[in-house]
Amino acid sequence: MNQPNDLILRTTTQLIAFLLLGFSVYLFFAGHNAPGGGFIGGLTTAAAFILMYMTYGYEKIKKILPINFRLIAVVGLLITLLSGIGAIAFGEAFLSQTSDYFNFPILGEKHLATAMIFDLGVYLVVVGITLTIILSIATDSDDDSNEDVGV
Amino acid sequence: MNNLAILPIILPILASVIVAFFPGKLNIVRPLSKIFMVVFLGVMLFITFKVYSDGMIVLQGGGWDAPFGISLVLDYLSIILVLTTYVIATAAVFYAPHSLSDQQEKFYFYTFFFLLISGVSGAFITGDLFNLFVFFEVLLMASYGLIVLGNGKAQLRESLKYVLINLFSSMLFVTTVAFIYSLVGTVNMAHIAERVDSIPAEDQGIVTVIGILLFFVFAVKAAIFPLYYWLPNSYVVPNPVVSALFGALLTKVGIYSIFRVFTLIFVHDTGVTHQLFIWLAMLTMIFGVIGALSTNNVKLIITYNIIPAIGFILMGIGLFNEDGLSGSIYYLMHDMVIKAALFLLIGALIVAAGTKDLSQMSGVIQRFPLLGWLFFIGSLVLAGIPPFSGFIGKLLLLRGALDQGEILLTVVALLSSLLILLSMIRIFIRGFWGEKMEGMTTNPSKVHALTIPATFLISISIYLGVGAETVLPYIDQISSYLLERTEYISSVLKG
To answer: Looking at beta carbons, which residues of chain B come within 8 Å of A143?
Structure first.
């Protein structure tokens, strides 16, 4: 896939991947009271990663981003669960959420919600799962520590 | 508000996430999973005790009151099924390391296993029709992972069929939930029941139609005639421990859903709906047992025996009187335990004899007497020979049938019990008796390790039969509570 004549793709990817990553952060924070959220933010991030994989090839990106995406998904699931269990620790019903306004030095008054923690978990699960699926279809390499069962 | 109701769902998910962190390190994952399961079983016993002493536990998720929030309801029926699920899962987790290859275990077996338990418990507990769909998806996702675990063309082919048929029925499920929502404007089961009651009698035809649609969704999962054709092949290909979980839990979730929906919501036109169940129950019994007699593959015989059991449970729902419902609940519990036990025993038998083919087996009991006698007891339990648990369930069911004057149903049920016994004893006579066969396993300690978890399940099953005096009052309490309906509705809606 890494052809020498893909100049346009390489040049635009530098810009678009950057924009996509920035936009995904925006979507993630917009989540709990405007369109957006962990799911769509995660998909946008995954799209940026996949674009980079397509442009520069699997090996190169793997060197730059040595991330085990399966682990990311599992960590995300754990965060999501803990945000639900957190409510139990405070004696509330499971999955109860709360929110408040806080003053930050530079940003000013911002609305922070515990739903954000839940969303962060969803974000990580989506990034992890999407990239695990796409990379395992796109590459045949068994370089993960888990050998294939051979289905 | 009581957070105990979420524990049967959240504990296994937590366990599945924890074991997913190190799938390759079996020396950590195996003991960890066993410890988790034993602790969880203890927690479930505590919750069961609590429900029976203090009454049902209702949790409104996120603190939003019903019908807006998501209700989780631990009532007398659901907690007893959750407890049974955990008993079976505990036996399975001790069986798995000896039955699966290391490679299969490393491929996230324990993660999928705990997810499956979570999905099954969730389906039992939820008080919301849409969330029933969600938990069906959770358990199906886990089951997709478990069914492809292994090797070979046959397994891949059958898993593909399994996935397709389940996707189709899930789509039909969502559609039906949408119909219900458009009719009564809610998906909370207690709220639906209340609103359906207030629909005037001449407009209730549409409710019956939707009820039958929903029945067919669940009938696919529960493997009721004529929708059982996918079951035997896809349950027979995976590893015995996976088959045990599927046979004991998945079809039972389907029949439980029919149970819940047709005792709580669709109860006004029993002449149509419940009469249909009686006919389908008869056909399910007959065709299932014919399947069980038609094959020499020992595992397939057990798999086919799932189907008549579903017929028996459906028969009690169709009868819809106190004896019938008690019999169904008893039979449901008994069948979950004994099916799991028999699948585990068959797994051990296949390892011991080195073949699945009954015509090549003989004399296994001479080398493995414990396995042989356990299997014999298991067959008697399954067929319903007194004093074992199958007998108690069938006695109640038949009493219910005779009260209703269903002579044909009684005859069919008795006849199919006899044929079930024949199909099981055939394995015993031809596989265990006779000349000691050539080519038996050279690794007897593995067979012993596989027999121990099954011993645990068989002894529970014996207790259900011999100790029926202590269990039956609770079952009767459940069935009169189900027929009453008001306690469920008022407990959920008051929050």
So the answer is: none
